[in-house]
Write a structure and sequence with these properties.
Layout lengths: L26 E7 L5 E4 L11 E6 L2 E2 L7 E4 L11 E8 L6 E3 L11 E5 L5 E5 L1
């Protein structure tokens, strides 16, 4: 189960478009637990030619300084998190675009026992234990 959760254990990645925040910009929220990996963000250009999409980033309610380019990483490994510690990342972005979280080789790895059987009719059946 050690590697059950991906990157930050984004089993429940919440992508919310919070209306009514202080600047009326949508908010993407990522919640999970730290697994020793950084988060990579693809940051498209705003349709309104106002620069890149991402306006601000917070990690556990603290402002995170990022380079506003076409892609950037959130350097969680420099923030002294302990393995398994809860993390909340908030990405405020423009109304006309949406940043994309890139999972580079960070999908969940799970050790599971799978019982495979082929019945007399040739139908494959399996059970995950």
């Amino acid at each position: 189960m050690k590697h059950f959760f991906l990157l930050l254990s984004f089993i429940s990645v919440h992508l919310l478009h919070a209306q009514g925040n202080k600047q009326d910009h949508p908010l993407m929220i990522l919640e999970g637990s730290y697994q020793g990996k950084n988060v990579y963000i693809q940051n498209p250009f705003s349709d309104g030619n106002k620069g890149f999409c991402t306006r601000s980033v917070k990690v556990n309610d603290k402002a995170y300084a990022f380079k506003n380019e076409s892609a950037f990483s959130i350097q969680l490994d420099n923030m002294n998190f302990k393995m398994g510690e809860k993390i909340k990342i908030e990405i405020e972005h423009s109304n006309d675009c949406k940043p994309k979280v890139i999972y580079d080789n960070s999908h969940p790895k799970r050790n599971a026992d799978i019982d495979l059987q082929i019945d007399s009719a040739g139908v494959l059946k399996w059970e995950v234990k």
